[in-house]
């Protein structure tokens, strides 16, 4: 005779959360260069087919994850590093020469570069002949890189195409930097 309380010898089905944790560990392993793409794909298939927690453990055993202490240390270092970058940028911004924005009623864009025909001529070897263009469009200022060799950046970010700029932004043409000013 059997009891109504039967005990199964196999564990319960894996939860989606357990599978997600294993997949996340595999993704992190690929991102950190610990797994090749082919190994990642094969292990991902095995995670999705796994029936027991020990099968998942085997698939992620060689992917040591950082502990809480390591994450805290790396997070703190990242925060301090980000602060020092912002501090350096703020320190330099006050010391940069001002670049006055053209009058808002001027319908013509301001061309910037080494060519004497430009509205703003910059005689520096890192500035292209026709480097960038600053124009007023619908009440906002737009800075457009014109295919310069050494690039244009706004607040430390490289401009690809065009970007909206404001009073106080730091702009760089090659290695020449300025702070935009409305007056």
From TrEMBL:
Q: Does Chloroplast show up as a keyword for this record?
A: no
The record places domain FHA at 110-159
Q: What is this protein called?
A: Transcriptional regulatory protein EmbR
Per the record, the gene is embR_1
UniProtKB keywords: Phosphoprotein
Q: Pfam families recorded for this chain?
A: DUF1707 (PF08044), FHA (PF00498)
